[in-house]
């Protein structure tokens, strides 16, 4: 069974938002969760990925979490063809990871089986076809791999968290190779995405960690009370599946470790709450993350931003 040494001592004391802001977040958070099922089911099937993405972005906005995407995906393997399946491999810090990845690109997820039983979130998970995995039951693992392979074969984009459990974000676990077999069996390319969280001055933050003895309500409460949290997603080059899941897992782990070790961005002051209009690469050209940076890009410290909605656009510059 995967395990993590992370516990309460790993979690930073939050920089707390004001009482009124926290109250507004709680109400808007509940409103988003309760209205999503209606909006999702009412939307035509072809619009549902956009609805999913928009609600994920809005949920993060309600939590006070901004998104920054660093695109280091240009080097290496060629882009995936549109309409083909894609396996996304990401770090696992907490429950916000799913919302962050869904806000960047529409995708499905393989997630812990007990998520299906969580109040409200479980219904949403079933609706968006989350693949449940019971980590305690190895005999059911081949069935999950088969279901994942079927999704990839049909052209779906699906994210997995192969560490098998959550870590605080300062430390990381080894990637378990089992689920990579689905990519090998279907010849599906793999996109490593390094996910980390930063505070308002650019240091790594463990506030969103769902670790140790945390309950879901503990973690949600901590996130809603904090301010200045930025979710940073680093897109890494595609990895071709090859013929060996162990080799594929090692290559993806190396890609995530390289991104984790890159501290070029550690001292960034977070001046911009959001920036828009940037586009990702082949997976979802219409995505507009808060801020998209090219490799080795640094945000202009004098950049000016305007607007009051969660979709503000850049007025100043991003220096490359």
From TrEMBL:
Keyword set, alphabetical order: Acyltransferase, Lipid biosynthesis, Lipid metabolism, Membrane, Transferase, Transmembrane, Transmembrane helix
Origin: domain of life: Bacteria
Molecular function, one GO term: 1-acylglycerol-3-phosphate O-acyltransferase activity
Keyword Transmembrane helix applies: yes
GO biological process: phosphatidic acid biosynthetic process
Pathway assigned to this chain's UniProt record: Lipid metabolism
Boundaries of every Phospholipid/glycerol acyltransferase domain copy: 86-198
Annotated spans, Disordered: 276-309
Segments traversing the membrane: 22-43
InterPro entries, sorted: Plipid/glycerol_acylTrfase
PANTHER family, per the entry: 1-ACYL-SN-GLYCEROL-3-PHOSPHATE ACYLTRANSFERASE, 1-ACYL-SN-GLYCEROL-3-PHOSPHATE ACYLTRANSFERASE-RELATED
Protein name per its UniProtKB record: 1-acyl-sn-glycerol-3-phosphate acyltransferase
